[in-house]
Structure formats: C-alpha cells, structure tokens
Fold this sequence. Notes:
heterodimer, A: alpha+beta, 2 domains, five-stranded mixed β-sheet, B: Aldehyde Oxidoreductase, domain 4, Aldehyde Oxidoreductase, domain 4, 28 strands, 30% helix
Amino acid sequence: MPSSIKINGASHDIDVDGDTPLLWVLRDVLGMTGTKYGCGIAQCGACTVHIDGNPVRSCVLRVGAVGDRAVTTIEGVAATEAGAKVQKAWLDLEVIQCGYCQSGQIMSAAALLANNPHPDDADINAAMAGNICRCGTYVRIREAIKSAAGNGGRRQS
Amino acid sequence: MMSTCAALSRRVVLQNGLAGGLVLAFQWPLRAAPVNEPEQQPDQPDGQFAPNAFIRIDNAGKTTLVIPQAEMGQGVYTAIAMILAEELDADYAQVVIKHAPASDKLYANPLFGIQVTGNSNSIRSFWDKLRAAGASARAMLIAAAASQWQVDAESCNAANGKVTHAASNRTLTFGELADAAAKLPVPDKPKLKDPKDFALIGKSLKRHDTPDKSDGKTIYGIDAMVSDMKFATLAQCPVLGGKVKHVDASVAKQLPGVNQIVVLDDLVAVVGDNMWAAWRGLDALKVTWDEGPNAKINSTDIWNGLRVESTKNGVVAKSEGDIDKGLTQGERFDADYELPLLAHAAMEPMNCTVRLTPGACEIWTGTQVQSRCQQYAAKAAGLPVDKVTVNNHYLGGGFGRRLEPDMVESAVRIAKQVSSPIKVVWTREEDMQHDVYRPAYRDTISASLLNGKIVAWKYKVTGSSIMARWLPPAFQKGIDIDAVDSAVDMPYDIPNKRVEYVRAEPPAVITGFWRGVGPNNNVFAIESFMDELARKANMDPVAFRLGMLEGTPRLKAALKLVAEKSGWGSPLPARVGRGVSAQPSFGSFIATVVEAEVDDVGGVHLRRITCAVDTGIAVNPDTIMAQLQGGLIFGLTAALWGEVTLEKGRVQQSNFNDYRMLRIDEVPPIDVHVIKSAEHPGGIGETGATAGPPALRNAIYAATGVPLRRLPIDRAAIAVKKV
C-alpha cells in the first residue's frame, strides 16, 4: 500500500506490501544498493541500517513496521558525527578488503560509537559479533573503532 | 550475538520476526528504475594513446589503467595499478581504474593461458608483463617529447605524468604527448627500472577501491541495475543431477509481485517485481523432484569411498632417493589425515544479471573468469561468443567460488524464458547447497626418523581432481598438479621422498578450488605430521624443522623470525599451547605461530597469532599484512568449524546459523612481519588460509597432547569433561 518512508533525511513514497523486508525496499525498489543481502535471517549483519540511530537487520524488518522513524543507511551515515569518524578510521587503517560486509560493519560501528563514545574490547565484541566478515578484517575493525573513538588503534606494522 | 539455533530457518524468522499480515493482491509499484550500466567497455581505447591492453591516456592526460585481474578484496587493483604506474611514471594519484572485459587474447593470465584470477598468481605471473607494458608506454611518451624538442631521448625524464627535459627546462604532460606517442612503434624490449629506483612499489599506498566501499557506492554484481529489469531467484534440484518432475505453481502465481514461473529441466525460478516477491513465490512453489541415483548418498559413503581408494597405490608425482630402503632406516611412523568438504560462503551470494536482445547477450556479474563466463553465456544463449558482453564488477568475495560460471549459465537459461532483462540472485541457502565444494582429502604418510632427522617420507594424497574438470589439459598422466602442490615441493631436507596421488571422485558433489587450493590440504597434513615426528624425536617443533631447512633458507629465516616474535618457548598456563607451521607455498615463505587455549569441554580459544612472511618484493606491504590476517582467519574458521555433510544426497548446511564463521569476539591480535626481500614477488592471497589450520592443530597438540588428525577440530577428543 502507498506509504512514505524517511531515509537519510529524505522522504520516499513507496507502494509495497508492508511485509516486504526493508532491505529489499532499499535495494530493489529505491535502488539504494549500499545495504547488502548476506543471509536473510539476521545472522550476518550485512544489511544493518539504523532506525532512529539504533542498528537493526533490515533483512528481517518489515517495512510496514518502520513507520515514521528515521532510517539511516550507509549512503547517509557520513552525515552523522560517529558515522563520519568511523568511515575515516576505516580508510585510515585500510580495513576493507572485498567490502561487501563493510556497509553493515560500518553501520554497526557507527551506532556503537554514537551510543558509547569510548568502547572497550568487550563493548566492541558485543556490538560487532553479529557482523560476519568472510575476508577476515576483524583485527582492523577493532583497531579502527578504537582509532575512531580516540582510544589509540594502531596501524599494523 | 545472534542466536545460532540450528533449527532457525528464514521461514521461522519471518513468522516470528516479521509478524505476517494478510497478503493483499494488488499491483506492485514500479521501481524508480535506477540504472548503473557502465558507460563504455574499457577495451575500446577511449584515449589517444593505447599502446597495450592495460594503458589508455587521453589528450587531457587522463590515464586509465585496465586491470586484467578481478578485485575480490585481495588488493590486486591497487597492486597492479602501482606496477603499471611505477614503470609508466604516471601521476599515481590521478589514475583511473577499470575492470577488464572478457578477453583471453588481451588479458589471459600468463600462467593459465586464459583469463583467470586465482592460485595467488596475479602479481607473480603478471609482474614482468605489467612492468614491460608501463615501461614501453613511458619510452614512447619520452620519444615523442624528445622528437618535438629535437633532443636525445636519453636526456629526458618522466615523472608524475610529465616528460621533462631538464637541460632546457621544458615540460610536456602525458596528455599533450598522447597523439604523438600513439604514432610511434611499441618498443620490443623497453628498459625497466632498477628496483632501487622504485617510487611506488614497496610502499603501503592507499587502496583505490576502498573509499567507495566505505560509503556504499561500490557496485558489485548483485547491485547491477538495468533498465526494465525484473528480479528472479531460483531453486536447483537439491540432489546433484536430479531433475524437475512436477511443479504446482497455483499458489505462487497468485502472490503479489510474482510475474512469472520458469521451469527448466533441472531448476525452477520465479521472476518478480523485486527479490522478496520472487523469493516468496519460490517458497510457495510445490516442486517434486526426480532426485536420481545420488539421492542415496550420505557423507559416510563419500568417506568410505575415499578411505578405500586411499589404500591403493597412487601415481608417482615425485620420487627422490630410495623410499623403500629409507623407510627401513631408523624408526618408522605412520599417520593418516582427513579434511572435509567445505563451502565457500562468499558474503555476496551468487548472482547474474542478463539482458538478451535479438542476436546479443549482455551480462553483469562478479567473476574470477570473465572469458569463461562469456563462453558459457554464449552457449546457453545460443549465440556466438563475440555477441556476449561481460560487465565484470567488484566481487563480494571470490575464494574460488567465482572461478565457476554456473551462476551465469543458469541465469542466461532462465532469461531465455523471460521477456525483460532479469537479475538472478541466489538465496544464501541456494548458494551454500549448490556450491562447488573444496574436496574431501585423505593423506597417508609414512616417515622414518634417525638422529632427530627425517630420512624417508612417503606421502599419498587421495582426493578429487579439480583440474581434471576445470582445466583438463593440466591434468596429465593421472596427476593433479594442484592436489600435490606443496607436497611435491615440501621444504624439508629429506634424502628419500615419494609423493603419490590417487584420484578419487566423490559422488553427489562437484568439487572446486577453495582459498588455499591444493596446499591447504598438503600443508595441513605435512605440518601436522612434522609436529608428531618432532615429539617422537623428543625435539622442540621449531628446532626440529630448522634442522631440515638448509635447502630452503628463506623459510628458515621466516621460521626463526616468527619464533622470536611469538615468544616461542616462553612459559604458558595449563592447556594453553603454541603451534607452528611453515610453508613454501605460492612462491612465498611463511612461518606462523598460533597460541590457543583448550577449555575443559574442548572449546578452543585463539589467544594470539604471529606470522612472518618472505614474499619477495612486497608490492604493497600493507596489503600483504591484510591478506595474511584475513587468510589466517579464513583458514582457522574452517579448522574450527567448517564441514559440509550430505544426507540423502542433500547438503545439510544452509546458512550462517549452521555453517559457522569466526566472529570478531573469537579473533585474537594477529601480527604479521614482512621480511624485506629483492626476490621475484610471490603469491599471498591463499597463504594465510593454508598457514592457519596446521598451526592451530599443533597448538592444540601442545596444549592437550592429543594428535588430532582430522578437521574440523573434534571438541570431544580434546575435552577433559564430558559435556
């Protein structure tokens, strides 16, 4: 049914079944392909977006349940302070390999830092363990989060 | 952490997590039809100066580098651009990078003779060719400038996209020279730089591909958007070789957003307004399969077959000294090792977008084999090969899975039944259950020890031959060169050696290359047995190896370095161990130490990983480190969790809930030490995957005394308490 959804500050009119997961509305209806499909069962985190600043798995969130809450995707996260910091740290430490999971990794990390500006290792584990990276960039993800938080973080040498 | 309940299925999540409302029948909205089709095929020289397949320079000086190899995270776009730009003396910060189109003629991997990215040989095998390509273009640009200035070319120099004649203080940009350079002959043997003058190679320069990957702009194959495209997903017969018997589409057809049901001989597909609609349609199909003879196959059948075959004599792949006599000297030991079938589980599920028009076919995908995809698409479409255009993309992981063209072939077959362009995306479940699996292997080893050294080594690999299927000309005299890689060239000084290969094809699965390829089996078995022999010899595992590495000094140096950096030999708590592995694989010499703890119930906890690598000239040292960090995690993931099993011909694993991946909370610090070297560059992408499992296995051996001989790790065997 026709409705409106607010993504990255802009309103989009959509006309889809309310049961459609937000992931497929973003990707296939609106053409915002930065958010990725990895598993469809909230196991890998590649589809992570923010709803009112909180990380959610868009593959299992029906679009009808979003309502008028603000959706932030990888395409818009740079507009948030934490998002911009995380993206910069990701590039400074050259975290990314194939990159397919990294939209989700960055969204999870940005949400973590927005809510907890100085996470320790346990906080990082709790926030990031839902995001799988098959290239194995975890060591650098941890360092980049610390770097973005101003907790050090080192380039591997 | 998410629930990992084995019973979890997408349907359950939907029922519980997506409170299902009544599905109303109405017209689905149209997409805004965003498209991101590429502007131009990069093999059509868009510059004025195109001296070879890799370099295009236009009048404005825009320098485009066409990269023959696929970028799947390994950093090859950056490394290849660095090599080309180094010898070209381009302004590296300004170069533009493009994916190569399908063409064996222009972009064949020198090692394989076809266009393929794999076996960690992009830099190894393209090194000379790329340097020559850059150097010849540079020589032509300098010759053009020298001619214009009426000076000797030797008196000119190139740097940062400009040619300069210092004596007269004149400068011309590459753009200004492009027209004139294009008219000059391409030099046969251009002068290459002295490595001491390298300005780019050897530096940890930033990757070209990562900025767009950090903000969602990168277009992977799965992101391709073509005008008027529909979305499709498919189900292939769950048993290999099975056929569709009957399809009841009565419910599926009624679902909103479902446009078409496609039934082929061996698969069904649903076309919809979006992936979700197609997927829901697929779930609603009632398909009866004729599963064929493989429906009787269970994992035990595969293992029993492999074990029987492994008792036979194999084809001799390597023989030195007198193995029979050698085995009678000293004390003899025997062991068998087994490695399971594995799935690739690249994060980007298999996909392919197809547009068929009368007389032409265009595809969008991410592949390690562009030209092979073109050939398979052509055959499926019934068109000549030159009527198929392949638009390659960044790959959301390759790991060998995208060395296969099956996702292209099936997508084209489906597209033939559909009037609009379609994007076929596999569900994760389909991806996992219709993989080409890393073969199961059984390795049988006999060795004899005399005075702390191995005097005889008899090694037999039994397993599927991927080469015989994938590149038949490479399968000669019964020997799969991949299956015995790192076994025929094992690094230790042993006077009597014999390596045999027994080809044993498992029923009900197709096998394929998996990151680490043949060596991930052989390095595991060799390095595991090395530790067992060290213990028999009552020697420290590092010292035992060092005593037999005179013939492989680069590995010896790496092993010494890793021992020092890992704190080898320093005291550890109970049930904590360090394990080492050493490998000469892919032209790189790597030694690794894993430190791990085994808890009372057999849980394994990684504490620290240290790695030393001599990969020859390290084009981009930071990429080398990243590849090893990631490769180690890839291999350790498999060692700890990976196994694909079959029941009644069906793969039992389906998604990340039942095919486990290591996660960030399970991964320790990983330190990689890159040894400076002037040798020819080695391969690196596979190496970590190969190095990790034996080092972990040996750490567990050190921690518990249990000599595991099979992967994945058997928790029950190393527990002190019954769970």
